[in-house]
## 1
Amino acid sequence: MQVQRIHECNSRDEQRGSFVLYWMQASVRGQGNLALDWAVEVANRKKLPLIAVFCLQDRYLSASVLHYKHLLTGLAEAQQVLADKGIRLYIFQGSPLDIIPRLAQHAALAVLDTGYLRHQRTWRKTLGELLPCRTVWIESNVVIPVETASVKEEWSAYTLRRKITPLLDDFLDVSTEAVPVLTSLNFDLALEVVPLQAVELGSLFVNIPGTRPRRLKGQQIAEPAGHSAAMERFMDFIRTKLDSYETGRNNPLAEGTSRMSAALHFGFVSPLELVLALQQELELPRISSCDHPGAAAYLEELIVRRELGINFCYYNDYYDSPLGLPDWAVKTLSEGNLHPREHLYSLENLEDAKTEDPYWNAAQNQMVKTGYMHGYMRMYWGKRLLSWVGDFETAMKFAIFLNDQYSLDGRDPNGYAGIAWCFGKHDRPWSGRPIYGTVRYMNAAGLRRKFDADTYATLYK
Ligand SMILES: Cc1cc2nc3c(=O)[nH]c(=O)nc-3n(C[C@H](O)[C@H](O)[C@H](O)COP(=O)(O)OP(=O)(O)OC[C@H]3O[C@@H](n4cnc5c(N)ncnc54)[C@H](O)[C@@H]3O)c2cc1C
């Protein structure tokens, strides 16, 4: 594995310990997990067993019961895959900042996988300070490690693409071979382990005061949970949809995209695995100079756009706030705040999809009913909010709230970057109009030109 993927959380030495500790948080999988593989290698070298731990935290970023159910399904598979390798994955209920330091007292070394949001960065920093042993974080959920891709917040996909493309082939040179485990575990952790089957969803998911109970009846989730379901879906996508992806991806009726976002969000699959599978299936010699139109368009989304979202959240603490928007967008949207809105909707009206716009309502319904909204409709959905909420700051807050509550892939760098994009981030000024100022505008006529929007509206009425 490339050394750029491996980072130290502190300057402590490895200590005499009874095991190597791997805290699984953002990579819920037993395969294609470079943090896990690295931890196994170290444990083998030290002739110590490896202990893997997942901390099930209640009210995690206001996650709904839907998110927890999905996570638990993927966790059960990861637990089984690890067990087959001879590694026990312990599930504890509680905060990692409480659990990991207690376990690490007995560990020779601690290994963390990597998320990029504020609280995940804080966890790493705090654990680096609290743990008595060497603590390492490993980037297995990106193609190019975030600081290698760029040392600063990037302006746009264009500026990041130029930096990432020359690095691609080198960073795709990773082994996906599982590392065999040499020493098995014989150690009492002396902490209460939660059997996965006994986890009570009700104890994790608590309605946030001031919001309404989530609607759950009649939900039809089609997103794959766990590594094997996700890989199966992905291979089917490559074989049946990739050829037409370049043109089909913007048609919400075509079902032409990979539906990998939730699996990537939960860490059930890694983008490295997806890119390598695609490369192998299409027999592409080099990813950086891919000449298959569908694959090139897909790799742009999976690598450049996704890692632009990660770059944004890693370097900008205000990724979920108007303070994270570029100055030109804040200025023009502030002016737009002074324009009267023809219709004003409350958060409840929006949540219930009760607006004058049947296309927007359908998009909102698709998200609530299926946990997924088509990517093209997400852009329209986010931008439309500006014209119905009194000011852009509140429109952005509502967008984040709804997306995080109802999208299975919500609470993700892509979500914060996608919403910020609706308000001008990673974009440039366009011609001006009321409310939106020079922020790019999308309207219903544009939807109708692209696809049969009325059929979409009927589908998710
Ligand atoms: C307002 C708004 C909100 C969004 N919220 C989320 C979110 O909460 N979670 C989320 O993962 N994505 C979000 N996106 C980005 C994008 O719409 C979804 O990733 C994509 O639609 C997921 O469907 P798919 O997996 O079938 O995508 P595919 O078209 O098959 O793309 C493959 C992968 O590439 C990445 N990707 C695709 N489009 C984008 C994009 N525009 N930006 C960044 N990465 C991309 C995703 O990881 C996706 O799974 C949002 C976009 C907007 C405009």
## 2
Amino acid sequence: MFICLYSVYMFGKNKLKIFAALSDSSRIRIVSILSKGELSVQDIALILGQSQPRVSRHIRILEDANLIIKNKEGGWVFCKLNRNQEIEKIIDFVCERKESDKDLSSIDFKRLLELQHNRVQEANDFFYNQYKDQYYIDSINKYNDQSIDEQIVGILSKNIKIPFNNLIDLGTGSGKILSLLSKLSNNCIGVDNNHSILKMARARICESELSNCEIRYGDITKLDLAKESADLTILHQVLHYFDNPDSLIEEAVKLLRKDKYILIVDFEKHQNEFLRKDFSHRRLGFHDEQIIEMFNRFGCKLIDKTKGVSVKGPNIEELIVKVWLGMKGK
Ligand SMILES: C[S@@+](CC[C@H](N)C(=O)[O-])C[C@H]1O[C@@H](n2cnc3c(N)ncnc32)[C@H](O)[C@@H]1O
């Protein structure tokens, strides 16, 4: 009730749609959990304990009131808050009130945390099994062919003075990027949260005598590395495993010193739904506009990108691997 009165007070009668949208407790719960980041409709339904059609109806009303933005990606729909200037205050107000209301919020946030925890667990099991069986390495190598490596080295050499000081590779896996780029940087750190895979990365570093490289165990969604310490942060084939890729870019940018660089290597937006089922992907690649929007939101600007390398194969609709380079504070 108080929230409704507040919305009228703040925005006047022309915001009746916002007023109506926020007059329902399920929709307030949805706005509140989305304040923690982007989520798919099926996850929102799981958290709320409601059917997908019911949640979709709420989502439609929130979208109609301009409170959230929907992004259809293959068979899934992702939702995020529409944080524009006009409605930012009302969203913050709703979320603050919801969080302070322990009874209402604790169950939703607990479920959200459980869901995120299970996802990490699933991803860990997936990566471990796939790496262990070699199958994953082979199939990923198909995408990471030499010409992509050439594009990465090319875009860095063209835009950055070599050697740079500190490179941090987020979700380093078996350390492929460290071995590719160790010659371009004085110090390199690779971070991953999968102990088994990190063993492979350490073995690779040892074998190739990459004395300027170091491997650390860590969760790239909440890093405890020093802020503003890196000249280059890299997310190589990592973003598409996350419902909320924005949070990774935010973390990667926090690590950068001003005027330094973030490199994303990932798929151009595609329609290969099977990658979700068979390879645990969450997002079906990214449009340039999505990357630019995320860069801008966290204080970076896109300064270069590659045309991409096309990957074709049986049962694969064309996949393009692209490289985007951003700069902080430009
Ligand atoms: C597809 S692999 C890419 C590995 C490497 N960047 C490459 O391209 O060779 C994704 C990596 O992200 C790691 N990862 C996933 N979630 C993570 C998290 N929350 N924190 C740290 N690493 C994570 C996985 O363990 C896996 O090694």
